[in-house]
Amino acid sequence: MNLTTDRTQGVSIVRVHEPRLMYPLLSEFAGHVTSLIGAGEHKVLLDLSSVSYVDSATIGCLMDLFRQATAAGGSLKLAGVQKRVETMLSMTGAQNFLEIHPDEPSAIKSFGS
Fold this sequence. Notes:
Strand content: 25-35%
Oligomer: single chain
Radius of gyration: 13 Å
CATH architecture: 2-Layer Sandwich
Mean pLDDT: 97
Largest sheet: 5 strands, mixed
Shape: globular
CATH superfamily: STAS domain
CATH class: Alpha Beta
Number of strands: 7
Distance between the termini: 31 Å
């Protein structure tokens, strides 16, 4: 799984460098994000700009990560979501919970200081 993590203005940014984020990759992906939340990161941004396809397991995983972040007193947001992925999130109702931003700068700004 090709992931990079940076920290900017108190926000942990996880960039997913995979065209398809699907079940076989989710264990490593979820483990990485869960470890950030467990380490006390309260502002987590998932940059999905490279991802053009997700499956239903991925949507479930994103919702689970959102619940973990919220339970830990933090927040998890998405940036750079491609249209096809956004459609999947809308069809499942996940966009009612997951905050989606067009790009990283606007997402980082939304976390506040």
